[in-house]
Structure formats: structure tokens, C-alpha cells
Amino acid sequence: MITPNSLEKIVQESRDRLHLITDSLPVLIAYVDNKQRYVFCNAAYHDWFGVPVKEIQGVRMSEMFDEHSYRIMQPYIESVLEGERVDFEIQLNHRKDGPRINHTTFIPHISELNETVGFCVLFMDITDTKTAEALEEERARILARTLEKAEISNRELDQFASVCSHDLQQPLRAVKGFTDLLIKNYGSRLNEKGKMYCEQILDGTKRMQTMINSLLDYARLEAPDTFRETVNMENIVKQAIENLGPAISANKATIACQALPEIEGDEMQLTRLIQNLLDNAIKYRRDAPPEISINVKRHEKGWLFGVRDNGIGIASEYAERIFDIFGRLHSARKYPGTGIGLSVCRKIVENHGGRLWHESNREDGSTFYFILPDKHP
Ligand code: ADP
338 CB under 6 A from ligand 1? Predict the structure, then answer.
């Protein structure tokens, strides 16, 4: 038989169970009657308002919130009292943390007589998610802007490449053609000085042609994320050594190489990188035969490679200039070259998400270091 005592016990037990469940949740949960008075609320209310849960019971919603917040909630309260579930976002003041964005849900409690007798109120603090979303949106905006810029610079590069290959070559061909004609038709009337000037013009056009081609080459070095293959650096070195065979034997150069790792990158570009560095190590030699070593060790960002030589070294004041396009320290007569090799090397390393630099002194030669990540970023 159910007595008033046992009934009260059952009610108390179910109330305890409700508290056990709702108090452990980081959400403000309450039940409000149709007069907008709190009948039940969980422990999160205490944390939010600093008022003991018991003291909230019987209090009207309009007394719990500041006037502005309550005014925003009012139309939603009217809707829920008409039996409609509502969801909305509202900024509420936490007593310690200040303004927080809350996802709010009002769920109507409809009786058997089809009357709204009260409603369940849920406030979920979504400020952190909102902030993370805003950050994500900002990041996406920055990425889109960067991609747009990259696209523009790619377009400019294409334009530059086409200028190099057509517009610049045309007048150059004309100068060469007319100089050839001058020699052919008027050569017999030119004195030695005149002939020498013609030779110099032809030399100059040839050099200009080489420079334009190497610029074009530089501009066409592919952008990063067009390659993703696993490359064995040992094979790369072997290939570069094979390509440089004649120069190596003509200079009696020796190349010692450690066991090298596999990385993710572009085989052609990496071969070019190693080949340019070895080519320079042989070209900028002293009297003694070039002794070159290739070393590698682990680095926090991937692998740190070093190509060391016993050549003429580089004065510290030119440490950066040598990486400029056409940046040379010697005349083409003394050491042939266009001055684009190291710019190409730097671009290749940067294309792979790495860094290239050198340490050098006039006594011991130079070491060119570069870091290549294991995986392309
Ligand atoms: P290039 O060799 O065609 O001149 P690079 O861009 O490869 O063009 O090199 C730029 C300059 O850096 C060279 O002209 C040379 O003065 C210097 N350099 C490059 N590598 C070395 C090296 N291993 N030893 C000494 N000098 C070097």
C-alpha cells in the first residue's frame, strides 16, 4: 500500500536520481513551470549564478537574468509556452568568466489535457567552440588569401617566362642576325678593331641568350605541391656524379658520400640541387684536386645535409650575395658560369619546405648545408 510517507520517499528518490544525472553535466538544466518559476535546476546553476540551488526554486526567470538577456529570451519563452520547442543562441554573463555564448533550448512539457504546464530549459556554453570556429574561419581566410597570392605570382611567373622566351629573345636574335650580316657583307671593309667589336657583340648575345635561358629555367621550377614521390638521396647523388663524370675526371676530384636517407620530393629537382653543388665544389677549386664529402644527420625538421669542399672558399661579406640571381664573385673568364646555380638550389630546397645556407672560410673551403623534411609539408 502506498502511504504518504512512502510516496514522499519515492518522489525524493527520483529527485535524487535526477540530480545525480544532471549535476554531473556541464550544461545549465532546469524545469520551469508555466508561470516561469523555477521548479528544478541542476548544480551548474550554482556555479553560474553563485546562488545555492535550493534558493533558486520558486524564483521567476525574469529575476535570474539581467533585464537585457531576459528581454531577448521573452519571445522564445512565449513560443515554448505555446507548445513549440525553440533553439537559439544568447550571450549570458557568467559570474566569474563574464560574457559567454550559450546554445539554448526550451522544450515544452505538454500535459494530457494538451496544456503547456512547464518547460525544460537547457543552456550550453559554446563559447570555446565558437572561438575555435572563428579561428578556423580566420585560418581558412588567410589560406585562401595566400593561395590567391600564389596564384597571382604563378600567373606573373608564366607571363615572365613567356616574356623571356619570346619578347626578349626576338631583339637578341635581331642583334645577332644583323651582326652576322655585318660580318658577312661588310667584313672585308672592317679593320681589326671593327671585327673585334663584332666578336664581342656576338659573345654578348650568346651570354645574354644563356642568361635568358637560365632565368626561364629558374622561373619554371615547379611549385611545391605538384610532387610527392619517395626519393632515395643515394640514387640522386649517384645520378649527379654520373652527369658530372667528365668534370670529375678532368679535375681528378674525389667525392665521399655517407649512407643517405629517403625523402619525399622531386627527383629531377633534387638531382639538380646536388649536381649544382658538386659542380661548384669542383669548379671553385684550388690547385690541389677537389676533395668533396657529402654528409647527413638527423635534424628536428628532417635531415640536415652538408656538401663540403676544399676549394677557394667564400668571403663572409658575400655570404648572401651568392644566392642572388646572377650573383657572381668572379669574372666569367676566370670561372665560367651565369650565377644562377645557387638561386636554383635555394628555390629547390625551399620548394621542398627546407632551407639552404653555407659556411665557408678562405682556408678550409666551403660547406653548403640544406635541410630537407622527411615528408613534404
Ligand atoms: P655560377 O657558378 O654560375 O657563378 P652559382 O649561383 O652557382 O653561379 O654561384 C654563385 C657564386 O657563388 C659563384 O660565382 C662563386 O663565386 C660562389 N660559389 C658557389 N659555390 C662555391 C664554392 N663551392 N666555393 C666557392 N665559391 C662558390
Answer: yes
Q: Which amino acid is at 287?
A: D
Average pLDDT over residues 288-299: 96
**Å from CA of 221 to ligand 1 middle:** 20
State the pLDDT confidence band at 226, using cuts at 50, 70 and 90: low
Contact, 219 vs 346, CB < 8 A?
Answer: no
**Domain stops at, among 73, 101, 125:** 125
Residues 15 and 96 in one domain: yes
Ligand 1 within 6 A of CB of 340:
yes
pLDDT tens profile 56-113: 999 999 999 999 999 999 999 999 999 999 999 999 999 999 999 999 999 999 999 9
The three grid cell numbers given for residue 337, joined into one nine-digit string: 658560369
Mean pLDDT computed over 194-207: 90
Query: Looking up cell 644566392, which residue turns up?
Result: 323
290 close to ligand 1 (CB < 6 Angstrom) = no
Q: What is the whole-number distance in angstroms between the Cα of residue 362 and the centre of ligand 1?
A: 14
Residue 314 CA, ligand 1 centroid: distance in Å: 8
343: containing domain: 230-372
Please give the distance, rounded to the nearest whole angstrom, from the Cα atom of residue 323 to the centre of ligand 1.
9
Q: Are residues 286 and 349 in the same domain?
A: yes
Sole residue written with cell 554573463 = 93
Q: Atom 12 of ligand 1 has which residue's CA nearest to it? A: 322
Grid coordinates standing for 150?
600564389
CA atoms 278, 281, 283, 285: torsion sign: negative
Residue 132 lies in a domain: no
- CATH code assigned at 53: 3.30.450.20
